[in-house]
Amino acid sequence: MKSTTSNSVYFQPSFGNRPVQIVGRDSELLDFMRGLDEPPGSRDRCTLILGQRGMGKTALLLEIADRASKKGFIIARVTAHEGMPAAIIEQIQLNGSRYFDNTKNVTGFTAGALGFSFGLSFSEPAQQQYGFRTKLSLLCDKLAEKDLGVLVLIDEVFASPAMREVAASYQELVGDGKNIAIGMAGLPYAVSGVLNDRVLTFLNRARKVELGVISVQAIKAYYEHAFRTMGIKCSDKLLESAAEKTSGLPYFMQLLGYYLTLYAQDSLAIDKSILSKAEESSIKDLENNVFKPLLAPLSDNDMIFLNALAKCEEPLTINKLQEQLGDQGPAIQPYRKRLLDAGIIESPRRGELAFAVPYLKEYLK
Fold first, then answer.
1. Do the Cβ atoms of 257 and 223 come closer than 8 Å?
2. pTM over 0.90
3. What's the pLDDT tens digit per position in 181-232?
4. Domain 26-210 adopts which CATH fold?
5. Which fold has domain 7-13+214-295?
6. Where are the beta strands (DSSP E) in 53-205?
């Protein structure tokens, strides 16, 4: 009898989706939740999450939103864009409305005198006259009457006028003692642009979380639980092999798990051939959805640097790279810094380099 449990429950390989369980990010989640327990204005209430594509930034924000809402925070979760300030106000009103009786006008003062006509709806004068900062402040005060805070979560952050308006307003409301917190996630080079923006320099004091690969053992444990629940047989040896093939990349873990369950749905068992087929399909998706967008913005000299590095034998050292580049290649230091800032390479030890994203070296070769 075939299992009726869909693989989509445990494996969500599409960007922006949240699987049933976040794997290998327990400490990051715990730290964020602890920050929300701090008093308004605490440094730990402002968090920047950095990570390359496939590291699980969006999934982490979704999990944070779910947990924070249970702690008494009204969530405004948006993707960065120029209409972001208005979207944040709308999200707070929508998600906070269930705590207010919106069928009756507020009594005790002239309608609109405090900025609201009823519930979390602004009066017409307030809607027309007040800007983002004032509206956000009014919402914080109104929600505080119900012992509720506000948590703004921004995905795919980048330096922009909208980002400046949101960040400056947050800083001012923190100074006013409002119960508000903010979490932002983005690609390393985009976050670097935000931190270097002269208006947003205060964000350098935010707590920074760099998402890297996760434990292979944690992935193995998740695979074992998921397959067992779905009634799919898989030997411990193949479980270990499948987990190792992910190299700790959360997106690849989702891809491989998805294809393993897809190809095993007839036999309800995973063997070497199914693992090989699933790996091949996963790598194709990884190339199209991660590597091509990752490399697209790079310059010709960036690519010369990376291709030369991919040809070096392990361990990847500056000396080996210089030999590959030769005298006609680009200067190492400027491009080394650029690619380090972009999160494409890393320097595990002095004089050594490594690819920060699993399988990227093999893709370039």
1. yes
2. no
3. 999 999 887 888 888 887 787 788 889 999 989 999 999 999 999 999 999 9
4. Rossmann fold (3.40.50)
5. Helicase, Ruva Protein; domain 3 (1.10.8)
6. 73-79, 116-118, 121-122, 149-155, 180-186
